[in-house]
Design a protein that fits this description.
Layout: H1 2-14, E1 22-35, E2 40-44, E3 66-69, E4 72-77, E5 82-93, E6 99-110, E7 119-123, E8 130-133, E9 138-139, E10 147-159, E11 167-169, E12 176-182, H2 185-203
Parallel strand pairs: 2-3, 4-12
Antiparallel strand pairs: 1-2, 1-5, 5-8, 5-9, 6-7, 6-10, 10-11, 10-12
Length: 204
């Protein structure tokens, strides 16, 4: 009988631990921006492996927020201010595992030429495993000239390392979005007017 109990105890001790994991909830990552001081745009990331398999519109949007896709920011002017306000995403944990910090990293580069260091945004005060930062002030367009650009992001959360990896990532490949940066309409118009006057003088 004692031998039987010992065998059972040994089997239990060697059995794999179930539900011992941390990770990201699908479809729940937002890259939050504001254009020219307006309301926050919650740009939902729907590419990559996880999160992102299925749009979930209207999740935790602020009263002045707009839910859009993290695909393209369209055409912007040099005079525009595209502020990175932050991010929002959800994680899960169980069996003594604990996600302790939420991070989003981003960088901007000329489309087709990935380069440059990533900028980190961190949240250490999760609310029911929802990580949110909305008070960023960095202008994504600062220092850029006219051209086509790509925004690249990735997420990384730090854990307590219990029954899980110390760091967990949200994607198998980094999601990207694009935008074009053009001269201000007034500058472009003045440039065209100056060219027209120059051609007229040459004809005279």
């Amino acid at each position: 009988m004692k031998l039987r109990l010992l065998q059972i105890a040994l089997l239990i001790s060697l059995a794999p631990t179930s539900n011992a994991a941390t990770g990201f909830n699908n479809g729940r990552l937002y890259f939050i921006t504001s254009l020219n001081g307006g309301g926050n745009f919650y740009n939902q990331v729907t590419t990559g492996t996880s999160p992102g398999t299925g749009a979930e519109t209207g999740h935790d949007l602020s009263p002045d927020g707009f839910n859009t896709q993290f695909l393209s920011f369209g055409t912007l002017n040099l005079s525009d201010v595209l502020t990175v306000k932050g991010f929002q995403y959800d994680t899960y944990e169980n069996n003594s595992s604990d996600v302790q910090f939420g991070n989003l990293f981003y960088r901007v580069y000329t489309t087709g030429s990935p380069s440059g260091a990533f900028t980190q945004i961190q949240d250490s005060n999760n609310n029911d495993d929802t990580w949110t930062v909305t008070n960023g002030t960095a202008n994504l367009l600062s220092g850029l000239t006219t051209g086509n650009y790509t925004i690249e992001i990735y997420t990384e959360s730090y854990t307590n390392g219990t029954n899980t990896a110390g760091n967990i990532f949200g994607f198998s490949s980094n999601p990207t979005a694009t935008f074009a940066l053009v001269p201000e309409p007034t500058s472009m118009a003045l440039g065209l007017l100056g060219t027209a006057l120059l051609l007229r003088r040459r004809r005279i």
